[in-house]
Known about the structure:
0% strand; 77% helix; single chain; 9 helices; mainly alpha
Amino acid sequence: xxxxxxxxxxxFDILGxxxxxxxxxxxxxxxxxxxxxxxxxxGMDSLKAFVLCYIGSGIPVPLxxxxxxxxxxxxxxxxxxxxxxxxxxQRSLNKSSVVRRYSLLGLFVFAAIPLPTTGxxxxxxxxxxxxxxxxxxMAAILAGNAVAGFLIVFVLxxx
Length: 159
């Protein structure tokens, strides 16, 4: 596409750094683990970065916990997406040994580990697949996410 370019400064002007940071924290894998360092690179102070990223990464949790099961069940019934659905389930369940063993405490620990493929998205998928109760699962995931955010801020402060 000749002549088409993306000017990131224009995106920031339109949306504002705060909204860009919150939206980036909503992304799977990236979550607040990537969004907090990004916000700090923009010059945001640690508290503001943490709050924006925590809110942004927490937004998908209730939606995932409420709607993931029906979506996955639907995908299982389609020819086009059934393999993807099965792959996602298997991949998530392979990471669920701590959650299976310790239930909600394990879910909290899983979400608190600030590494790629641990966090709110995978934690929500695991909680859904293991049929953990919605509100306690949401509380465990969000509490673990707060710990992960504090760890990221702490590490960035001392590095």
